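Exercise 7.
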Amino acid sequence: MFYGTKTLQFGQFPSQISFDVAVAELFRGGSQHSIYNLSYMFHETNLTGLNVSGLNTSNATVMSSMFESSTIDGCLDLRHFDASRVKDVFSMFQKPESMSIDLSSFDTANVSTMSYMFVECRTGHIELSSFETHNVKDISSMFLKADIEFMSLSGFKTSRVVFFSSMFQNLRTNSLDIGHFVFLETFYITNMLKEVMVEHLEMFSFDLRNFA
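Solution. The predicted structure, written as tokens, is:
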């Protein structure tokens, strides 16, 4: 939709209308409620002051590569996103650059794959503490080559995850706590922690008995 847009400032539409109003105009007549696929919506954009609070995502099921390779000045605030029906977030934040990403209210209860979600992501802080992952089966390469100053995985439940391969490979971060991870249905953990660069790694209670 905004693929390749450069230095777009949403406060500078005609009549100084905001982005949420502009989006409403783009989907006048209620058709916005029929949006199911938001893939690549902001792919390779360079944005200032992005406000997506007016974007109705209640029927969206696919958000793959939505912010891939985007550059966003400031915080990418997705607290208002309704992701209750979303199943696919593959590469959603691949290679973006932002001061921080707020996903504190992001509903991931129906998501089954998070592979490559934050691959090569560059940001200071990602709020993931409320992520619901009980239906997720694939988190391979989720943080591959990412550079994230701070993130919390305290809410992650991994009992149904099958694919962990390269999840944290080449990740750079200050602290990583995966002591609560369980591997009940897991078959693939190859390179999960390969060449991870972290100041503090917590693996207390890390149970790999299924791989003995």
